[in-house]
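Re: [ENG-882] Designed sequences occasionally contain unexpected residues at chain ends

Forwarding the minimal case from QA. Structure tokens:
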């Protein structure tokens, strides 16, 4: 038999705790501020949106936070996810590098997002929540929360960014199959949605607008809570089961990654893979290169300003210090809808400021080229978001070839692209173009950042 390809763990090896990188950082992340008073937020400020257990996770400083057994039991549907050696891609590239990928597309919803959707729904169920609102870009998070809501008999309403709502009807159908209601955002159902439509009836929408709509509904209705699929600390926390499993799987493989790569929009799948490895480094282990890959049309880490900003367009959310393009910035419409967010999660932004990670921005067509190359070698069609990680992994493998270095590369294949084939159809038809943000609009959005004395 030829060399091993898959490295798998038994269900008993699903992590029992989430890993909290805050415990190992050399300096704590900046405080979250109230949008009205500009003072640090307290638990009571967040209670209209989240159950108390998630609020406590948001501000936690301990290294390990126990995963409830009922949540781990549901995780057994797809976890542990496989670590796969991309031997055919290595051969195609003729590289001395070893390429591995952690494959999160094996979940029921087809991405890493259920890793947080299930615990969020469970903690809401324990708190008596009957209804949840959320936003989604490409629909990976919306379909995952819809799936989680179906498990716990919670009604879910998803505000999906308009350009993705139009581009990805099958993702919408998946949400409805799980029992959720999917609404094109901006909508006429909320004040923030109506305001966005009044300003520009033809707007492609944005995650910032969709968040505003979902938060508004939750804030105005005491029987409704809000769930977020990325950006916040507790979401990053939930995703760390990815990296914890990968560490064990690399031990099985007798290998250890030199380069760790993941796409990054709000930062959840990136943090999920990278933070446990960074934790090893921060506790005295060896240094690795860790690369967050973002779209060139929405490069919050590469081009954003590190500043306090709102998480949404209507300024309903607390102020977080993050790399931001400005909360009023609306990225151009491109097919990686899950990466069309104006800000990077505060924890990811903080580790970037500390010099622990790198950022790289990639163009849309180059990413799809890499996605097709990967699919033809390894058989898995990546989600458009995940093609950014594939692109970077291929580029790093080719660098190793040019330099004659046999480095080990690991990337997170955060989801499959089975519901994104319209994007591939456009790519093969030559209709896909590299879209670019308007520099003037970006400058205007950055000029409107809130003034915060704490900076």
């Amino acid at each position: 038999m030829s060399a091993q390809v898959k490295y798998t763990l038994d269900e008993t090896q699903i992590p029992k705790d989430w890993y909290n990188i805050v415990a190992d950082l050399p300096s704590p992340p900046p405080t979250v501020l109230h949008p009205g008073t500009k003072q640090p937020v307290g638990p009571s400020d967040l209670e209209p949106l989240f159950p108390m257990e998630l609020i406590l996770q948001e501000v936690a400083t301990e290294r390990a936070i126990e995963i409830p057994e009922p949540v781990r039991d549901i995780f057994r549907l797809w976890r542990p996810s496989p670590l796969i050696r991309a031997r055919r891609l290595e051969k195609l590239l003729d590289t001395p590098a070893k390429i591995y990928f952690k494959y999160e597309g094996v979940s029921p919803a087809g991405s890493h997002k259920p890793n947080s959707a299930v615990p969020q729904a469970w903690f809401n169920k324990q708190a008596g929540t009957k209804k949840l609102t959320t936003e989604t870009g490409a629909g990976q998070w919306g379909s995952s929360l819809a799936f989680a809501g179906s498990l716990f008999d919670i009604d879910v309403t998803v505000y999906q960014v308009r350009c993705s709502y139009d581009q990805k009807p099958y993702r919408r159908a998946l949400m409805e199959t799980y029992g959720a209601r999917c609404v094109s955002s901006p909508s006429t159902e909320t004040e923030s949605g109506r305001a966005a439509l009044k300003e520009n009836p033809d707007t492609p929408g944005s995650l910032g607008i969709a968040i505003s709509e979902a938060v508004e509904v939750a804030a105005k209705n005491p029987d409704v809570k809000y769930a977020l699929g990325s950006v916040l600390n507790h979401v990053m926390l939930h995703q760390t089961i990815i990296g914890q499993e990968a560490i064990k799987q690399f031990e099985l493989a007798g290998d250890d990654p030199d380069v760790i790569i993941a796409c990054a929009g709000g930062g959840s799948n990136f943090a999920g893979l990278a933070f446990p490895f960074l934790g090893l480094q921060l506790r005295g282990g060896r240094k690795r290169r860790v690369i967050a890959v973002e779209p060139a049309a929405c490069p919050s880490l590469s081009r954003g300003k590190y500043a306090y900003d709102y998480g949404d367009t209507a300024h309903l959310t607390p102020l977080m210090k993050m790399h931001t393009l400005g909360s009023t910035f609306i990225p151009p419409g491109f097919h990686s809808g899950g990466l069309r967010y104006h800000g990077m999660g505060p924890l990811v932004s903080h580790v970037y400021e500390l010099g622990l990670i790198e950022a790289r921005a990639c163009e849309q067509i180059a990413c799809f080229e890499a996605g097709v190359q990967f699919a033809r070698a390894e058989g898995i069609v990546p989600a458009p978001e995940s093609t950014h990680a594939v692109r970077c992994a291929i580029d790093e493998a080719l660098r190793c070839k040019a330099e004659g270095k046999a480095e080990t590369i690991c990337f997170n294949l955060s989801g499959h692209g089975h519901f994104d084939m319209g994007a591939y159809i456009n790519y093969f038809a030559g209709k896909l173009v590299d879209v670019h943000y308007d520099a003037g609009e970006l400058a205007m959005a950055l000029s409107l950042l809130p003034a915060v004395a704490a900076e």
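QA comment: On inspection the terminal residues look reasonable. The chain has two domains: 6-13+68-110+234-447, 111-232. Proposing we downgrade this to a documentation issue.
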